[in-house]
Amino acid sequence: MKGSILAGAGMLAAMAALATGCSTGNGGNNLAARDTTVEYYRVFDIKTEAPAETVAKAASNGINRNVKDAQVATPAGVQVTELPGHFKIADPTPAAPGTAVDKGPSCDGASWTAKAAPKVHGSDNMNLVACLFPYKSGYHLDMYAVFTKPEGGWLAWPRRVGGMVLGTPEKFTESTMMDLVRAIREGTGANVTLVEAKPNLAGTPWLEPGKNGSAQASTAAPATPAAATAAPGTPPAR
């Protein structure tokens, strides 16, 4: 009887500890549910003399490896500039009350754009934007992703297990961005280097084969004589 009483007291103590959220020394609550906003930002320099249509086709193949409902566009009349362009983050301040705010950056001046809002396990409100900005030596590929994900709470452990089985939104975002770069590099023979990354990107994963392999990668057309014989510093054929 005495053992049963002690066991019951121990169980009550454990339940009380859980009820208080297992508070840490800094007053935090490990069981408190919260939503965290995650942002990814990647800029690559792509040096190639491949025709613009070939580069755009390779980029479209790359985004389609992971995102099947991306809105892809190739704006007409885009000028090749001396220096590469850069996307601009939308400013929600001027929006009138009750008006929808554009999600993600704008791609003004880009020769190819892709926007998508994929439904990814473990995340909410994911938005992906990719822009190809032509300049005299090739292109800059700007990519941006933002999503929210639930953390903490009673479902923290099941979410962790689900992430190990189904993958995480971080892994999906990284795979999508790297497959896009790989497709352009493999489809055009471009020389690709990283310009900027947030979070930091270790190594050179865009030079490694992706999970989709290279079956879809070969979209390059034979170089035109003008592209093959262009003098150094001359704009690539468009």
Describe the structure.
This protein has a 6-stranded antiparallel beta sheet with strand order 2-5-6-7-1-8, covered by helices on one side. It has 238 residues and is an alpha+beta fold. The protein is globular and about 55 Å long. Strand 5 and strand 6 (124-135) form a beta hairpin. The protein has helices spanning 2-19, 52-64, 156-166, 169-188, 225-228, and strands at 34-47, 71-73, 88-89, 105-106, 112-116, 124-135, 138-151, 191-198. It contains 5 helices and 8 strands.
Distance between the termini: 88 Å
What shape does the CA trace take?
Answer: globular
Strand order of the largest sheet: 2-5-6-7-1-8
Helix percent reads 25-40%
Largest sheet: 6 strands, antiparallel
- What is the helix/strand order? HEHEEEEEEHHEH
List keywords for this structure.
globular; disordered C terminus; 5 helices; 238 residues; single chain; two-stranded antiparallel ribbon
